[in-house]
Structure formats: structure tokens, C-alpha cells
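Contributing new records

If you add data, match the layout below exactly. Sequence lines come first and carry their own label; structure lines follow with theirs. Keep one chain per record. Anything else will be rejected by the validation script.
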Amino acid sequence: MNIIFYRYKSICEPDFIDAFYSLGINVIEDTDGMATSLTLDQKITNLGNLIADKKPLFVFSINYYPFISMLCEKLHVFYVAETVDCPVFEIFNTTIKNTFNRIFLFDKEQYNLIHSQNPDCIFHLPLGAACDRVSTLLGTTSDYKYDISFIGSLYNEKDPLSNEPSISCSLKSTIESMIDKQLDDSVFGYDVLKATLNNEIINELKEIDKAFYPSNMSVFDISDYVALCNYLCPHATYQERVKILNLIVAKLPYTKLDLFTKSNCNELSDNIIIHNGADSLKEMPFIFRQSKVNLNITTRSITSGLSQRIWDVLACQGFLITNYQPEIDTFFKDGKHLVTYKSYDELIDKIGYYLSHDKEREKIAKQGFEEVCAKSKVTNRVIEMISTIVNQ
């Protein structure tokens, strides 16, 4: 049984490949997504020839590619995709209605936005944990090197509002006020931003950035969603991560906070220990295992689902404190498998508490690890995908 895996070098790809192989499925890798020298027409031709030659059960990719959907629809081959990012604007492309699509979206709100456009072919499926891979890598590693750690971008390099010199002072002030209210209101999502966003702001963003993602090939006008997820949410995420990291070292001066990032850290306190970014497959698991407290601060465009970092920390038997997300309650028990916070004061209190209660912290980390290994491996997700395809 063959599948074709269209690759573009997502860090999630190796774990899905391993999962397919573990189920007896032969993976034929199409690496054209990594080839910047190839035109889109060349990629389509090459993939079409590969499909004709290998006759796969389906073509698979991480995130959604409209051109693959178009090709598979023409050739009557299933196209299976799993989103690992949010936003993925391509899911609103008109090709999302194709009958040979089998699209799995990890964020429930992401799913709710588009499901009605093709209800028999779009599904909600959370991300998963690579328990076997990281357990083999980590072995019996157990010593602590870090009190509190956070691995990830600050989002300033992904923030158009911080990097756009032509933004007006009035627009910047308006957006800053909106974001302040959002951060004060809740630790997840963008409901306040959405409620206060208006056409004037959207139109000015379009004027400022000629690369504003267009809606002309989408099933409906997604201008408000683009404004929220590509402009306001990255800026809110940047503001929040800087705020939280500085707050921790200010409120808990007796602890050490280690940050692993490639972002510009000029706005961070000198009391934060800053490292270069960590390799996701080789270095990150050791940091998760060897940190007393691992932080997750979900990017604001993920409004309900669980980011990959949550699954990764638990797969490494790391102790996790994360902002609350609506889907956490579906998979975990707060205080048993991980710990959530619903305010910044609660975050500070819980970090302090669990740093001084080793046995409780280590018990939660162990239970979280056991829970994801039992129910939420990447292999479990692949089985769910295949079952959905076969049983339709």
C-alpha cells in the first residue's frame, strides 16, 4: 500500500512518516516542495507523473495545497492534509470544495469556519505526540538544567505591524489599545480584537501592505480573518510573550528563566537567560525533559486548539504550564496531566508553587506523559485519518 507524501520541510513531517510506516504503509516522498528552483507547473507535472506511476491510496501533506487538491480531483485520487498551523489561508481557497479532499484541521474554530463549505470532506483532528521517537532519543535523561524555560519565537520577526514603517500613528495607537484590552480580557484567542475590528482598519492595512492575502480565490471574503490572523494576532502574540517573560523574572527574581529563540530580544529583561534557538528534533526534547517548568504561550490566532508545543512537552515527560485553551478539557485534566493559567497573576502563582513542590510537579509530568502515550500519539491520529477515509 503506497501513499505519496508531499514534503516542504515542516518539522512535523518526520513523525507522520514514521507513523505511516509503523502501520505498514509505504511512503513515497515527493520533495518538490523543498525545491525553490521548480515552477508550480513543474511541480504539478512531476506529482501527476508520480501518481500515475505509483497509484497511491492517497496523496498527503502537512497543511493544505490547492494545486494538489486540483490535481487529485482531476485524477480521482484522495488528497489528505492535516493542518499544523493556524492560520492556513489556503483552506479558504475554492478548491476546498473538491470531492476528493479529506482535510483534517487541528483547531476546532478553524474547522468551524470552513466545514460548511464541504461537510463530507473536512474534519477536526488534533495534533499528536511523538512519544516513541523522543523516548528513544532521551533514554533515561532525568537531571534538571533549567528552572523555567520557553522555546519559541517572540513573534516580532513575524509581526508586520512592528516592521511596517508606513503604518500611521493613529492606526498603531488604535491597534495597541485593542490588543491591550484583548490581553487584559483573556489568555487565549482574539474575541475582543474581532469585535472591535472594522472596515476602516482592514482597508488601511490593505493600503499599507500590498501583499495582504487576497480573497478573490476564496469561498468567501476573508479580509477580516486575514487582518486578525496575519496582522493583529502576531502583534498581540509578540506583546504578550514579552510581557509574560518580563513579568516572570520581575515577580520571581529567585528563579532562572531560560529562553531559546532566534528572535530579537531587545525588549526583554537582562535577567532572562537568552540562548539561540533549539533544534526541534535533536535539542528541544532534552530542554523539555530537563526543565522544571516548561511554558506554553499559544499564539493568538490559535483560538481553541492545542499547539504542537503542548504535545511535544508532554511526550518528553516535561512538566507543562500553558495558557488555557478551550480544547484542553477534551484531552486533559488540569492539575493531573498539565497545569493551565487563566490570568497572568495565576501563572506567576503556579510557577512559584510548582517550583517548590517537586513531587507534585513530577507526578503531573509523568501522568501527562502516560496520557499522551496511551491516547494521543501521532500514530493514533494517522489511524483516525485512515479510518475516516476508509469508512466513508
